């Protein structure tokens, strides 16, 4: 490997990072992650820390998942690539489709369409939702409704339904016909309620009102994350998603559950939809499907929707959508091995148990550190929201957040910051000792800014 100076200089000179200002990456060079094992990563200076980000919400089984690595190596030797466009398929992918149908049978989703990641999966859902209505004789149903603070990736469709101005403004104009409802973000909500059930019903009422205003016959789908991730880990009241499902049903609107983060156990349930007792029409998945070791995703399609496509005899039936890497055999082999390990390790149960411990630890930190305004989480997706003042809820300053981040890293734990939020999404295989380590390191990081 090249020496450190070469790497740092050329990272600044030749590499643009996602979700970062190029100038900031020059002024404040990113950490060069050089190795990983178990639930830890090691930087170029040789410092090893617990990865409480879990890669990017995706390395659910940690970095030493040998069966997944072996499956990737073996598949590379057997068949490193072939397309699945009309005319060809491959055996690991067929086996994966069979396994996914078993995995999601309880959710009523037994058809899969494969992608190269979360943004592709979202795009696929949006496009197939429109196509379904065309097949179904309602071609004017083209609009989408989404939630503020929702995150749905960065393709133009996903950016259009995205509920965060930072991911929209620079790329406008976006898709027409997209409306955003209020977010189920209790800590800061436009209604001034402190009751999450009331907030859920107010947003549901807003949804009904929007449908009446626009006309149900113009709306294709509602897209939502069962637990909003990148928007700051927003956990809606348990009534929220069922209320939204019911409204969709009454108005012929499809429900797209964006489960790029929540599928495969992160919330403590196998899917976020199942957590809330809801059956979506489309489910986007990616990330943990290959434990982060290979870019891959799957859209799961409800039987009712799939059957309409399969029985269709008009000119709308063919799927004019897909990617060169849809159904990549190496990704399929990685996913098959990942699903097997995910089930064997029963990571959803561990996510629920360790998540409860982590939340208790974070509540303890809130009692100690004034700067924590809000603690949120479900399973092993958690957030601390940092404020300059608990009364006014003014957000903590950027440099304060950065000091806490660096302090926590020094103390041995990698976390992720997003605005004034510290986001935690560790591997789902962490132990109670790991949870204690995360809380202790955060405590040390927070102490750096204590008065
Ligand atoms: N949807 C959700 C809910 C996500 O969290 C993400 C990624 N964080 C995406 C879509 C986009 O996925 P990707 O970055 O793999 O394109």
Automatic annotation (TrEMBL):
<keyword id="KW-0808">Transferase</keyword>
<dbReference type="Pfam" id="PF00202">
    <property type="entry name" value="Aminotran_3"/>
</dbReference>
<keyword id="KW-0032">Aminotransferase</keyword>
<dbReference type="InterPro" id="IPR015422">
    <property type="entry name" value="PyrdxlP-dep_Trfase_small"/>
</dbReference>
<dbReference type="GO" id="GO:0030170">
    <property type="term" value="F:pyridoxal phosphate binding"/>
</dbReference>
<dbReference type="InterPro" id="IPR005814">
    <property type="entry name" value="Aminotrans_3"/>
</dbReference>
<dbReference type="InterPro" id="IPR015421">
    <property type="entry name" value="PyrdxlP-dep_Trfase_major"/>
</dbReference>
<protein>
    <submittedName>
        <fullName>Aminotransferase class III-fold pyridoxal phosphate-dependent enzyme</fullName>
    </submittedName>
</protein>
<dbReference type="GO" id="GO:0008483">
    <property type="term" value="F:transaminase activity"/>
</dbReference>
<dbReference type="InterPro" id="IPR049704">
    <property type="entry name" value="Aminotrans_3_PPA_site"/>
</dbReference>
<keyword id="KW-0663">Pyridoxal phosphate</keyword>
<dbReference type="InterPro" id="IPR015424">
    <property type="entry name" value="PyrdxlP-dep_Trfase"/>
</dbReference>
<comment type="similarity">
    <text>Belongs to the class-III pyridoxal-phosphate-dependent aminotransferase family.</text>
</comment>
């Amino acid at each position: 490997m090249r020496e450190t100076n070469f790497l740092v200089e050329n990272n600044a000179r030749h590499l643009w990072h996602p979700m970062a200002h190029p100038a900031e990456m020059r002024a404040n060079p990113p950490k060069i992650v050089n190795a990983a094992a178990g639930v830890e990563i090691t930087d170029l200076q040789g410092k090893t820390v617990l990865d409480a980000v879990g890669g990017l919400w995706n390395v659910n089984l940690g970095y030493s998942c040998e069966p997944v690595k072996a499956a990737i190596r073996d598949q590379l030797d057997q068949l490193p690539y072939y397309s699945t466009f009309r005319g060809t398929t491959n055996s690991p992918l067929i086996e994966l489709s069979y396994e996914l149908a078993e995995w999601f049978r309880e959710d009523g989703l037994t058809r899969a369409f494969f992608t190269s990641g979360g943004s592709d999966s979202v795009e696929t859902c949006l496009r197939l939702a429109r196509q379904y209505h065309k097949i179904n004789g309602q071609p004017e149903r083209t609009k989408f409704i989404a939630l503020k603070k929702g995150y749905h990736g960065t393709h133009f469709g996903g950016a259009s339904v995205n509920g965060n101005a930072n991911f929209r403004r620079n790329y406008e104009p976006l898709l027409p016909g997209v409306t955003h409802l209020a977010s189920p973000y209790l800590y800061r909500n436009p209604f001034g309620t402190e009751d999450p059930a009331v907030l859920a019903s107010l947003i549901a009422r807003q949804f009904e009102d929007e449908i009446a205003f626009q006309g149900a016959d113009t709306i294709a789908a509602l897209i939502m994350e069962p637990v909003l991730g990148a928007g700051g880990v927003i956990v809606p009241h348990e009534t929220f998603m069922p209320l939204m499902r019911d409204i969709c049903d009454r108005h012929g609107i499809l429900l797209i559950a964006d489960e790029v983060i929540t599928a495969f156990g992160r919330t403590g349930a196998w899917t976020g939809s199942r957590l809330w007792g809801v059956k979506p029409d489309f489910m986007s998945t990616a990330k943990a499907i290959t434990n982060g070791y290979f870019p891959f995703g799957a859209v799961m399609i409800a039987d009712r929707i799939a059957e309409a496509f399969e029985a269709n005899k008009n000119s709308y039936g063919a799927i004019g959508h897909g990617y060169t890497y849809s159904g990549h055999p190496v990704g399929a082999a990685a996913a098959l091995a990942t699903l097997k390990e995910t089930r064997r390790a029963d990571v959803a149960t561990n996510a629920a148990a360790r998540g409860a411990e982590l939340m208790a630890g974070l509540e303890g930190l809130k009692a100690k550190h004034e700067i924590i305004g809000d603690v949120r989480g479900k399973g092993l997706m958690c957030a601390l929201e940092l404020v300059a003042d608990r009364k006014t809820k003014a957000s903590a300053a950027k440099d304060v957040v950065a000091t806490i981040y660096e302090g926590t890293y020094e103390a041995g734990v990698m976390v992720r910051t997003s605005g004034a939020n510290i986001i935690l999404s560790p591997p789902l295989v962490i132990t109670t000792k790991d949870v204690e380590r995360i809380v202790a390191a955060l405590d040390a990081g927070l102490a750096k800014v204590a008065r």
